[in-house]
Write a structure and sequence with these properties.
1 helix
Length: 31
Amino acid sequence: MGVVAVVLFAYAVAFASLFAYCISKLNFQRR
């Protein structure tokens, strides 16, 4: 259970980072 929780947490963090990166890239292109 611990390993699964860590993997899910890492996946969520990676997804959030990717989403934030795409948003910042979009904002940068718009300027």
